[in-house]
Automatic annotation (TrEMBL):
Signal peptide: none annotated. GO terms for biological process: proteasome-mediated ubiquitin-dependent protein catabolic process; protein polyubiquitination; transcription-coupled nucleotide-excision repair. Keywords: DNA damage, DNA repair, Repeat, WD repeat. The lineage of its organism: Eukaryota, Viridiplantae, Streptophyta, Embryophyta, Tracheophyta. Pfam families: WD40. InterPro entries: Rad28/ERCC8/Ckn1/ATCSA-1, WD40/YVTN_repeat-like_dom_sf, WD40_PAC1, WD40_repeat_CS, WD40_repeat_dom_sf, WD40_rpt. This is Anaphase-promoting complex subunit 4 WD40 domain-containing protein. SUPFAM superfamilies: WD40 repeat-like. One of its GO terms (cellular component) is Cul4A-RING E3 ubiquitin ligase complex. WD repeats lie at residues 94-136, 181-216, 330-362. The keyword DNA-binding does not apply. PROSITE patterns: WD_REPEATS_1, WD_REPEATS_2, WD_REPEATS_REGION.
């Protein structure tokens, strides 16, 4: 079957992008709990946040840690790669947080700096090399979220969301608050910057509103309205790129949501797909799910993006973003899952939970029948004029 796909590619019947998408999709479809890689976490509390190639994690015991996902610290039994933290800041650190670390994010330009937000009402900027705080901001309430623009060239702002009803913008360059964004009627649980404009910011609050801001102007320019809906506009973007995807969670009405290009996905024990241009719900019928509503959840999407990974209590469900069908359910944690991170480079899924563990979900090796079946399924999606029997 895989030889057929290679032959199609050689003959030009299957484009390079679709061939790559099929290969990635087949590996994603074969994700399973890894039996050759594991993280030995130093955290003594729930894992709330996971980020990037050097995996940055934040936990409810007030600690933040960094792991190298490519280079193992040691090998157990000769083949199980164990990854221990290469950096840890916790309550014992002189500048450590006193309460829950709700969010830990990398400085977008390089890994020399990272930012942590905590329930102790502080947002701190850390120097990775010296493990010292180079700047901190005292907030008016518990800090639930923090975000930096991945494309900004004219500002170094950290957007922060807290129990206060305003979004506060902190400037690393000056060490001061620049301004606030007012409009929410309850705490701000989720924030994310646009990947197409350095001035556009999204926020989700306990008041159930999702607001879009242009930080150069007063007031938000778009609020999603549950009462507005439209059918259609569900294109399967096979050639989407990861730089147009971002994920984050809010609380109550919109427990979680994902934005891709001009489409937005929200959830409150159900998932919905929104058209950002019109602000309308596209009415994709997603299968039922059960979510935590006591804290923000971090979601993940594949690079395609065809699948969205959502923490559903102690399991993780992968949904087809365009059909709304449950593709796969991952079980391995013993307590509710709080965060997911999908690595495009490693083609692995990392999940953090209240059980204080970070689990690794890796693709199966390409020798098994399951792999062939999934390749056959995805190739048929992209090349439907061909038919294969089970022995193909």
């Amino acid at each position: 079957m895989w030889c057929e796909a290679v032959r199609w590619r050689e003959h030009g019947e299957l484009g390079a992008r679709r061939f790559e998408t099929a290969a990635r999709a087949s590996r994603t479809a074969s994700l399973a709990l890894s039996n050759r890689k594991e993280f030995t976490t130093p955290h003594n509390g729930a894992i709330n946040s996971l980020q990037r190639r050097y995996l940055l994690s934040g936990a409810s015991d007030g600690s933040a840690a960094i792991f190298d996902v490519q280079n193992a610290t040691e090998y157990e039994a000769g083949f199980i790669a164990k990854h221990r933290s290469i950096l840890l800041v916790d309550k014992q650190h002189e500048n450590g947080h006193k309460f829950v670390v709700s969010m830990a994010v990398w400085y977008p330009v390089d890994t020399g700096l990272f930012v942590t937000a905590s329930f102790d009402q502080y947002v701190k900027v850390w120097d990775t090399n010296s493990t010292q705080v180079v700047m901190d901001f005292k907030m008016p309430g518990k800090v639930y979220s923090a975000a930096m623009s991945p494309i900004a060239t004219t500002h170094m702002l950290i957007a922060t969301g807290s129990a206060d009803v305003q979004v506060h913008l902190c400037d690393i360059a000056s060490g001061a608050f620049t301004h606030t964004l007012s409009g929410h009627r309850d705490g701000i649980m989720s924030l994310e910057w646009s990947t197409s404009s350095e001035w556009i910011l999204m926020s989700g609050g306990c008041d159930g509103a999702i607001r879009f801001w242009d930080i150069r102007r007063a007031g938000c320019f778009l609020v999603l309205d549950q009462s507005r809906s439209q059918l259609g506009r569900r294109p399967p973007f096979l050639e989407g790129t990861s730089d147009k995807i971002w994920c984050y969670g809010s609380f109550e009405l919109f427990t979680t949501f994902i934005f891709f290009k001009d489409l937005l996905c929200t959830a409150e024990d159900r998932q919905e797909l929104w058209d950002i241009d019109s602000g309308c719900n596209t009415l994709v019928n997603f299968e039922a799910m059960r979510l935590q509503t006591s804290k923000p959840l971090q979601l993940a999407v594949t690079e395609d993006p065809s699948l969205v990974f959502i923490p559903c209590m102690a399991s993780i469900k992968a949904y087809n973003l365009w059909s709304g069908m449950t593709f796969q359910t991952f079980r391995g944690h013993y307590e509710p899952v709080n965060c997911c991170y999908c690595s495009a480079q490693e083609q692995e899924l990392y999940t953090g939970s209240n059980d204080m563990q970070i689990l690794v979900w890796s693709p199966s090796t390409p020798a098994g029948a399951t792999f062939i079946t999934t390749v056959q399924y995805f190739i048929l999606q992209f090349h439907p004029k061909y038919h294969f029997d089970k022995d193909s």
